[in-house]
Amino acid sequence: MRRDLKGLYVVTAALTASPGFAQEQTAEAIGAGMGLVIGLGIAIVIGAIVGWLASMIVKGSGSGLLKDVLIGIGGSILASFVFPALGLTFGGNTIAAILSPLLGAIILLLIIKLIRR
């Protein structure tokens, strides 16, 4: 038997000897991938809503879908790092979960406006 095929044979024999382990590893990998995709989708949708609201408050009109999504996600990231560092907390309810990223997106839009001037 060739040397490279021998290693493949050993791995295949080990996996078939414990099929539950291989199936469990595959299921975990697929589940982790799906969780990432779902989380990314939720972040985009929430980012679009928050970015659109922030654009409506600061400019009076939306900035376009892509820009609203980026502003909303950027505002959420800004809020999650900067507000706790400053000691600002909004609680753990649903309104606070929307208010914090919204304030972060508004601050981000104001910073962008200052830089563009």
TrEMBL record:
Matches recorded under InterPro entries: Transgly_assoc
Keyword match Nucleotidyltransferase: no
Protein keywords: Cell membrane, Membrane, Signal, Transmembrane, Transmembrane helix
Subcellular location per the Swiss-Prot or TrEMBL entry: Cell membrane
Signal peptide: 1-22
Membrane-spanning segments: 32-57, 69-88, 94-115
GO cellular component: plasma membrane
Top-level lineage group: Bacteria
Membrane topology value: Multi-pass membrane protein
Similarity comment: family membership: Belongs to the UPF0410 family.
Protein name: Uncharacterized membrane protein YeaQ/YmgE, transglycosylase-associated protein family
Lineage of producing organism: Bacteria, Pseudomonadati, Pseudomonadota, Alphaproteobacteria, Rhodobacterales
